[in-house]
Write a structure and sequence with these properties.
Blueprint (H helix, E strand, L loop, with lengths): L6 H38 L5 H35 L5 H10 L4 H20 L4 H27 L5 H7 L1 H20 L3 H6 L1 H12 L9
Helix pairs in contact: 1-2, 1-9, 2-3, 2-4, 2-5, 2-9, 4-5, 5-6, 5-7, 7-9
Length: 218
Amino acid sequence: MINLKSKNGQRLIASGNWLWSLFTINFSFFIINFSVILTAIILFNLKFSVTYNVVLIILWLMMSVFTIPGLAASYAAVQEWQINGSISFFKYFFKKWFDFQKNYRLNFGLGFFASMFILLNKLTVGNPQWHMAVLILTFVYFMALVTISFQLATAKFANYLTLFVERPLPIIISVIVFLILILLNFVLQLAFLSVICSISLSTYVSYRLLGGQVAKKD
């Protein structure tokens, strides 16, 4: 048996606490976005119709209420983790998610653009040039989403534009990490990643890349 009071035992405990923090942040995000994920799956399997438009509007509203403030709450939870150490973040995440609801104009604006990019990507699938243009704009949108979510949660920079201008490469890398972990779920059908670490790990990496405050030792 491993002596938990030994050096290796302490490392094991620290590793377990680190993984628990990662899981609680991600699972909290997954809980509030489960209905969003189901709605998105339904939408992607629909053809253009009145039903498609109705489901798209519903998805816009759901992303505005759950996904957008949920991402900011993930950054806030990661910041709390990096400053005060590993704990369970269920309660803290939901508190921050509720707090970020006050930015409803921003949330619904970002949600609207997200739904428009979903629509444009579907419309341009058969046209390689236009589809590539839409994909590039979608990537820029994700850069803006990461920038805004990080700034909302940390207030580290003077404003969104300052962060976007000063840290373009870390933002680009952050988006790539987000996309890789999300795409792994679909390509490899690793559903457990969605529950365990897909968003929280992406947020953690992004937080460190963007220079978020770290006051503890991992």
